[in-house]
Amino acid sequence: MKEIGGYFELELAQKEEYHFKAIKLNSGRNAFKYILKTQSIKKAYLPCFICDSIVEPLQELEIEYEFYNIDNNFEIVQKLDIKDNEKLFYINYFALKSEYIKRLTDMYSNKLIVDNTQAFFEKPIKNIDTIYSPRKFFGVSDGGYLYTSKTIADKLDVDESSEKTIQLLGRIDKNATSFYDDYQKAEQRLMNLPIKNMSRLTQKILSSIDYQTIQQKRKENFKYLHSELKSINLLEIDESLKFTPFVYTLLSGGEIYTSLKTKLIENKIYVAKYWNEVLGRKSTTEIEKDFVNNIIPLPIDQRYSLEDMKRIIETIKGNYLNV
User: Fold this and answer.
1) Which among 300, 284, 291 is positioned nearest to 234, based on CA atoms?
2) What values do phi and psi take at 147, rounded to 5?
3) Rounded to whole angstroms, how far apart are CA atoms 184 and 191?
4) DSSP result, 238-283
5) Which end of the chain is more exposed for a tag (fewer CB within 10 A), N or C?
């Protein structure tokens, strides 16, 4: 029976989710597991430049997998012969590879699985299994979206998120550093979760977001950073900005990476590292090691203004680079 009266819950505007037609699950990695459980997949081909969270479901379900390599444009090096009961898993790296994914679709059709966890705003291609992870773009602790043609017959339980949100609420009251341990604990809880439907809290938050404004803000911030850094960025970036960016992906020379990253963090500009586990794989190439060791993903998301972007540039210019 519906409760009436009593104390108020968190009130959020109710709009339409960006991926309202997708299957709503409790994590991106469980979206991948969902595909594995609903299709007779005997083997998966994964990029070597990938995090362990995608390897875990394959190991859990005892499905064979093999790594392939990518070049300095994040494109597949090997010629792959994907059989009918096999899948090719490809990441839309930093939201930069949507046009390449169209080419992969022409080559591999529905044998392709697209990981759009770094490309939330890219629409899925018809009949192509596609995965999204909203927590990489918005203030939610979990959740995943999936487009796929086959569904699990059993009714899924609904996940609960309220105990995993202290880092989101705490950062508003204080700062990121004070709740970083809670953030790490929340990330750890996502490992080896059973597949469930997206929690009501996560879905409600995702239904309250002004997606159009967020896209515009991300593009403005990205455009500014690129105008200032393109002369020293070793990556080729599509300046037409037909995509909505995840971060500004700066590939630096190895001799400045550590000192530059340290200086950014000292100035409270927090940058991640993708992905240390890649370095331990036997098939990792020098290009992929270079991506791990020298990519600096600069934040450009909707929380920040052009003034914040100028602060990032001043920190970089003022300490290390003559740009």
Assistant:
1) 291
2) -110, 120
3) 12
4) -TT--S--SSEEEE--HHHHHHHHHHHHHTT-----S-GGGGG-TT
5) N
| Residue 256 token pair | 């400045």
245 pLDDT tier (thresholds 50, 70, 90): very high
Tokens linked to 98? 């949507």
What's the mean pLDDT in 11-37?
94
Alpha carbons 24 and 106: distance in angstroms, whole number: 27
Contact status, residue 219 vs residue 177, Cβ threshold 8 Å? no
Query: How many Å apart are CA 222 and CA 162, to the nearest integer?
Result: 33
For 15, the token pair is 């709009």
* % of the chain at pLDDT higher than 90: 74
At 47, the pLDDT band (50, 70, 90 cuts) reads very high
| Mean per-residue pLDDT of the chain | 92
pLDDT in tens, 281-319: 999 999 999 999 999 999 999 999 999 999 999 999 876
Q: How many helices (H) and strands (E) does the chain have?
A: 10, 9
Give CA–CA dist 75/107, Å, rounded: 13
Which CATH fold topology does 23-206 show?
Aspartate Aminotransferase; domain 2 (3.40.640)
Query: Measured between alpha carbons, how far is 110 from 10 in angstroms, rounded to an integer?
Result: 41
Q: Which residues of 190-218 are buried (b: 16+ CB within 10 A; e: fewer)?
A: beeeebbbbbebbbbbbeebebeebbebb
Q: C-alpha distances in angstroms, 289 versus 187, 254, 286, 295, 300?
A: 24, 11, 5, 10, 24
Per-residue model confidence (pLDDT) at position 93 = 97
Amino acid at position 226, single letter: H
Burial 60-82 (b: 16+ CB within 10 A, else e): eeeeebebbbbeeebebeeeeeb
Q: Which CATH entry fits the domain spanning 211-319: 3.40.50.2020, 3.90.1150.10, 1.20.120.1560, 3.90.950.20? A: 3.90.1150.10
pLDDT digits (tens, 9 = 90+) for 131-163: 999 999 999 999 999 999 999 988 999 999 988
